[in-house]
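User: C-alpha cells for this one?
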Amino acid sequence: MMRAAGTLMLCAALLATSSSPVLAAAAPKARLKVVYGVKGGGAKSAYLNCAPTGGTHPNAAAACRLLKKAGGDPNKLNVKPNPTCTREVQPHAAVIVGKWYGKNVRWGKVFVNGCYMRATAGAVLAL
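Assistant:
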C-alpha cells in the first residue's frame, strides 16, 4: 500500500514538473460576427473566423470563400445576380461586424425577403 502511494506521488510530481510545449492556437486573420433577423421573428448570430476557418458559423468554409472572393467586403457579395424570388414582403435585416485581415468591417442591409438575402449573401448569412 505504501509502495503504491509512493508511486502515485512520484508520478504526480513528474507530471507537475514536466515541460511539454503548449501550442497556442493561431489567431484568425478574419473574425466577424454575423447577425440576421426577420421582422416579427427571431434573430440568429454566429462568429465567423477565416484563416484558419472556424467559429460558430454553421458553414464557415463556404462563407469564408465567398468573402475572400469579395475581398472581405459584404457590399460586393452577389451570389445569384438574377434570382427568381417571390415578391412577398418579409424584411430580413443583416449585420456583419469585425475585422477582415486588419480592416474594420461594419456592414448592414435590409432585404425585402429571405430569398433576396440568400441570393445576395449565400452561405455568409446562412445561419
